[in-house]
Fold:
Amino acid sequence: MSGLPTTTQARNSLRGKAMHVRGVLASTRPEVRVGRNVRVGRGVRWRLEPGATVIIGNACEIDDGVTIAAARGAVLRLGDGAFIGHHTTIAARESIDIGPGTFCAELVSIRDHDHDPDQPPSSGTNRVTPVTIGRDCWLATKVTVTRGVTIGDRTVVGANAVVTHDLLSGVIAVGIPASVLRHVDD
Ligand SMILES: CC(C)(COP(=O)(O)OP(=O)(O)OC[C@H]1O[C@@H](n2cnc3c(N)ncnc32)[C@H](O)[C@@H]1OP(=O)(O)O)[C@@H](O)C(=O)NCCC(=O)NCCS
Structure:
């Protein structure tokens, strides 16, 4: 993606966020670790609470308009070479781990939490379970990954799928809920 700011601007952008948070609560702020050659697009929203940890590996690319959110105590990690397509949302309340070389297309949603559907959303009651996505996966456009899901290495999730259950390594899954279409040819 041309025209994206590179690591220095990414670091400065993230430092700015940390300082903003520091003004609110001096003793804790997000811990953000950014690897080498990270590229961050325009209009990326960093919603990081004090005490959150975000780890961005080397050579990651975060495209325009992505939202990265991490609550207090949450750990959100992008492995080396991960690509996050434009207007994707990744929101962690406990843990989201995206493996090296994994690509998310645009408008993907990955969250490790829900509102409790039996309570009004304004109650603030959340159900939280970690999400793990392996290495070299491809999540196609508009995929949604719900809380508690583990996706194995080298798995492909087809456009518009909603992943509500674990997917093994090396499969192509499509649909709502996502189910296995076939194994990848390696
Ligand atoms: C899943 C995908 C990779 C195709 O995999 P494939 O193994 O080549 O699958 P095929 O095209 O041979 O289709 C096999 C069957 O799955 C169905 N299918 C394919 N993609 C599907 C999808 N996303 N959702 C539901 N069904 C799908 C096909 O209709 C076909 O069904 P049929 O046998 O009843 O006709 C592709 O369809 C897809 O979703 N691409 C994502 C495009 C995208 O988002 N690109 C972003 C670029 S980063």
In short: Residues 105, 140-141, 156, 158-160, 172, 174-175, 181-182 surround coenzyme A (CB under 6 Å).
